[in-house]
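2024-03-11 09:14:02 DEBUG pipeline.ingest accepted 1 chain
2024-03-11 09:14:02 DEBUG pipeline.ingest length=364
2024-03-11 09:14:03 DEBUG pipeline.predict start
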Amino acid sequence: MKLNLLFIGNKFIYNESLHEYIMRKIKEKVDFIDSITYFKESDNSLFLYLEEELNLSNKLIIITSKKHFSTIGKLICTVTSDNQVLNENMLIPSNSSLFEDASYLLEYKDSITNVLHIDEMQKMPEILFNLEQSKAVIHIFEKTKEEVTEFLSQLAQTFDVNIDVILIIDGWLRVDITSKKYGNLSEFIKSAKELLPQNLITSSNIVGLIIEKLSNANKKITFAESCSGGLLSYYFTKENGASKILDGSLITYSNEIKENWLAVGHETLENFGAVSSEVVGEMSEGALNVSNADYALSISGIAGDGGGSELKPVGTVYIGVSSETHHANLYLNLDGDRNYVQQQSVLFAIKMLILMDKEMFFKI
């Protein structure tokens, strides 16, 4: 069955933080969303859409506001020849098979529909679908998409699974694995790890894995960011347990702050410019010195949309990664708008950290 997601209400179109929160909670529960549709409250075509969806063999999640919750129930009752009843202070279709606060489940013909209401600054109601997890995610580094597809295709046939190889950035692939009727996900992943022991991470959440590994080893990490403006820190602090491994981070946007906070040399900045391998090297070293962390990541670049030059065009980024014994720099020439350049920069920094200490991050 396909899973379709329907948002009803202007707030779910324009309130980005509310929308992102809802999407995060849904993705925690479901494997894959086949389609996402948005309706404003006043859209007269909503009834026809609901009628079509409820007569298909699909799963449907409907997100609306408390104000319009009963109105959506009325439309559903019209389609299904039902009527609404009061349950737990909610007006819901009488044929609802399951309900909790602000959420009910309705089975009609071959369709299953979960209607939920949520407003600003509220907790997401419970998603009531009973979904069997038949999917896993792994990550593979330092291999091309063609190589990974070739390595894993035969294994996929052996263990009766489907694989979808997705490029995150150069040298970082996400592999979505879906079990067929008699598939064996765990054995597929175990065999794939044996095939690529120094390239494959079995965790679906890479930053969560880094936090877990560093925490278990009693190690710390710190950041010195310029063009990424704190995005690298956000990637870590949005995950549970970040406080165990991250004491702090420095956003050193100006040259003066790079000098004063990180002890980047004035002559280094004058001779090579803030966007250079020399500067990110000193940024990493400075971050290690002020934090006493075990690892430091630094990013400096030109995210755009302006500010580039012929020698250093928009998209030029340098990344530095340092430990107590090693240092590595990376030069990138990235395409995309300002936000995408920032996001790619952060992902490359995370990849560099993982590859700097393979013994730490690839060991099961």
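2024-03-11 09:14:41 DEBUG pipeline.report The chain has three domains: 2-117, 135-201, 206-361.
2024-03-11 09:14:41 DEBUG pipeline.predict end
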